[in-house]
Amino acid sequence: MEEPKPRVNGATIAKFVGRRVTIVGRYMSSERGGHTLLLETSDKQQLRANLSSPPLEPPSAYVEVVGKVEYNCQLTVERLVNFGNDFDLDTYNDAIQLLNNCPVAFPGL
Prior knowledge:
By secondary structure, this protein is mainly beta. It is built from one helix and five strands, in the order βββββα.
């Protein structure tokens, strides 16, 4: 069975160092020739997501990243999904807070 990839925000990511997580954020910029994406998380924190190679197409305004949380709370990206240019991060953040405050009700999310 595949390991769950909990949904996190900037405030909860540190609890998952060494584990795979899912996070949605607003794409802000690229660094290192496109190998690092700078994202704003749903709770308005900045996060670096490191890719093994630049994405084939430019990131949309909002992206979902699945990856491993490193010791410095950066992500090593396994999968990058474009979410388009219109996404309600505030409502998404409310859902993330609910998921993380009620882990018994939402196991593995």
